[in-house]
Amino acid sequence: MRPSRICTGVIAILSLAAPLFAQTSNTVAPSPVTVKIESISLQSVQPDRIQLLVKLGLFPERSLKVKAFSFSNMKINKMPAYVSPIDGQFNMKKDQYLKLPDVQITLYYRDLASLEPARQAIEQQKVIVSGSISATLETNLVEQLAMHSLHPRVVLPFAKEIPVSVPGGTSGTAAALAILDVASRIGPGTAKLLGAVYPGQDSAWRNDVGNEQVKHLVLIRTSYTIVDDQASYPLQFEQLGFWIGPSTVMAPREAVTPWQFDPDAQLRLSSNHARIDKASIEITVQPVVTAASAMPGGAALWSFHQKDFKIETEGKPAEDHIAYSDKATLIELRQRASQNNYALLRFRDGIVGSPVKLAGPTGNGWDRLAIVRLVRSSAGDDLRTEVVLLPGTADGKQIRLGQQIDDSGFGSAVFTEDGVIGMVQDESTAILLSSVKHLEDKTER
């Protein structure tokens, strides 16, 4: 076991209240909080996941109050990872170290093309941790008005190489690698016996979703260019959607206006007279089954420019005004988990899709929901579909997923054995279709 050491990432996570609200421009001087990652240790290796335990704290330059921390776009050695939010009242005092509760990071094997990156992390006993930390500030009304938000937040992307402690030294490392070897060879029967939700798990319903229901899904690609006084920046974004009616596709609004949900795009648009070149916007739609197979050039591909479809309805997701990056630039960002994060695409005559079957009235919870992910190979050139089974609970007009997923599943229909009940919006949330008022005349049951 390598000796642990404190790795200090000088992460300007919070631009503190006093200077932030005193400025009249949308950019303020950085006022950093030092994030100290005290240690990362291997907590467990299970049949379907790896869990790491992180000890960390904050060293602020000014006093302020935070009521929650959340994590997004987390990666461990570029592998998707998930961290639960930290809730509670945190009174940070100037120049006084504040130790935060331990944080558990989870990596699911279902998100990996192979277990080799996980094996390397354990063998080398070091990882690169990257992602974004969001702090929800506790503010008064004057401060909220200054930030144009009732729930002001500060978000900062970060990346840091950190040593990993493996309990048990050499023998502990050998044991962890042995479990990984078993997991890499796990069969459907063993996975079911262990209660693991694993891609190879034998399930007639899983097979039906993966082979038949996936035919209702589409892949939406949106390309656009940000231009400013110095240069242009072409960008491309892709997300899932599905046929909700014979001529209508439902998708997150993010699929057609991705820049509104991307903090980096909004940061660029906030400076240097930057803007979206509207003429550069192109949206294409194709069936997932053709996107994930080596189909010849004649495979269906529908274009917004060619007027194969129009954006008939766009929900209005709630907006956050957040301070982003080390300079705490104020930007507007749409919320993925908003109940209005959806769009409906209406296709021209002659284009007919295969709509999903909607489930009838549902209860308050589900032991098993199915979500489809569109996964790229490690080389990035091949696509394949993968069905993830997970539990969920109803929460008002939304579904809280019992396990987090990465962005390869955003926009997927949420399947039950009786039909579709929702659409995935972010790592933990799906919208209940029964709450979307524009669907009455476009669906079938």
Summarize the structure.
The protein is built from 8 helices and 27 strands. It is mainly beta and 445 residues long.
- CATH-derived architecture of the largest domain: Sandwich
| Unreliable residue runs | 1-31, 187-202
What is the percent of helical residues?
Answer: 10-25%
CATH superfamily of the largest domain: ApaG domain
CATH fold-level topology of the largest domain = Immunoglobulin-like
Q: So what's the CATH class of the largest domain?
A: Mainly Beta
Shape: globular
* Major sheet size, sense and barrel closure: 13 strands, mixed
Tally of separate helices: 8
How far apart are the termini?
A: 58 Å
Count of the domains? 3
Q: Output the radius of gyration.
A: 23 Å
Class from secondary-structure proportions: mainly beta
Average residue-wise pLDDT: 78
Number of strands: 27
Oligomer classification: single chain
Strand residues, percent: 35-45%
